[in-house]
Specification:
Pathway: Carbohydrate degradation; 2-deoxy-D-ribose 1-phosphate degradation; D-glyceraldehyde 3-phosphate and acetaldehyde from 2-deoxy-alpha-D-ribose 1-phosphate: step 2/2. Keywords: Lyase, Schiff base. It catalyses: 2-deoxy-D-ribose 5-phosphate = D-glyceraldehyde 3-phosphate + acetaldehyde. There is one protein chain. By secondary structure, the chain is of the alpha/beta class. It has a single domain, classed as TIM Barrel, CATH 3.20.20. The chain contains twelve helices and eight strands. Strands 7-6-5-4-3-2-1-8 form an eight-stranded parallel sheet. Helix 4 links the parallel strand 1 and strand 2. Helix 9 packs across helix 10.
Length: 314
């Protein structure tokens, strides 16, 4: 059943946002875990597995977000993103490569003409602790260098202290700075403490202008759990029912195997609906998932697993 949701009013007072967000229906935590666990047991037919694997590959945001990242490492990752299995040209390319803002230009040049997007974690990733002016400058630089997507992190300290107006206004300001680029808003659900907070943060981000809501930076545990992803899918489903606008969801962190990916696809289909089974509305943030998807894909086509060093390490 669609939930009542706050109107997208950028001038709303903090008290108004608090009243509206705390007026959302509470999450039954036991029920949410039980339903997610039940959906995780669902299997797909063998005939559909090849399609699911290829779809999951097309949804991957191939990511490198380390202090030791170099232009060479980014170029190698981009080559893999565009041609995941050089021995099999039928293997689909991934959705995007996600890098720090200072490496966006390198990725854009490496991916030119491939159809793979470039995403950047601007806005003081992963903590989000920086003045708004710095976040906006980082965003504008990444977009100017060619980033098609910006992954921003919310100020969890402001959110947890109830300063919803600050969180909303920062998201809205970054969205404006994005210009033509899409905005993914990272909630860092591992720090939000409760499922109720996940629901509130999801609605707040959506109404501030997010094109996607994303679970995690991948730097905080727990990251992309199935119950949390389910609650976020419920939010975008209900928002669409109320407004006709579709928002994407991106679980990130801890999704490492083909089984993990398929569980997420089942969750999307059962909770949000088949319209979200598209890279334009669902992504998988991962650095190690792609290799397992490729290994399972090769097993389906040849009947045997490739050796552990068959695919390059991410």
């Amino acid at each position: 059943m669609p939930h009542s949701a706050p109107a997208p009013d950028t001038a709303a007072t903090n008290a108004s946002w608090r009243a509206l967000l705390h007026g959302l229906p509470g999450v039954d935590e036991v029920g949410a875990r039980a339903r997610a666990a039940d959906l995780a047991t669902r299997s797909i037919k063998t005939t559909a597995k090849a399609h699911a694997i290829d779809l999951a590959i097309r949804m991957v945001d191939l990511t490198t977000l380390e202090g030791a990242d170099t232009p060479g490492k980014v170029r190698a990752l981009c080559a893999k993103a565009a041609h995941p299995d050089p021995a099999d040209p039928s293997a689909p390319r991934v959705a995007a490569v996600c890098v720090y803002s200072d490496l966006v230009a390198v990725a854009v040049e490496a991916l030119d003409g491939t159809g793979v997007g470039v995403a950047s974690v601007a806005t003081a990733f992963p903590a989000g602790r920086a003045p708004l002016e710095a976040k906006l400058a980082d965003t504008r630089r990444a977009v100017a260098d060619g980033a098609a997507e910006i992954d921003m992190v919310i100020d969890r300290g402001a959110f947890l202290s109830g300063d919803y107006r600050k969180v909303h206004d920062e998201i809205a300001a970054v969205k404006e700075a994005c210009g033509p680029a899409h905005l993914k808003v990272i909630l860092e659900t591992g720090e939000l403490a409760t499922y109720d907070n996940v629901r509130r943060a999801s609605w707040l981000a959506i109404h501030a202008g997010a094109d996607f809501i994303k679970t995690s930076t991948g730097k905080v545990a727990p990251a992309a759990t199935l119950p949390v992803t389910m609650i976020m899918l419920e939010a975008v489903r209900d928002h669409h029912a109320a407004t006709g606008r579709r928002i994407g969801v991106k679980p990130a962190g801890g999704i490492r195997t083909t089984k993990d990916a398929v569980r997420n696809l089942v969750l999307v289909n059962e909770v949000a609906g088949p319209a979200w089974l598209d890279p334009g509305l669902f992504r998988l943030g991962a650095s190690s998932l792609l290799n397992d998807l490729l290994m399972q894909r090769t097993k389906l086509s040849t009947g045997a697993y490739p050796g552990p060093d068959y695919f390059t390490l991410d």
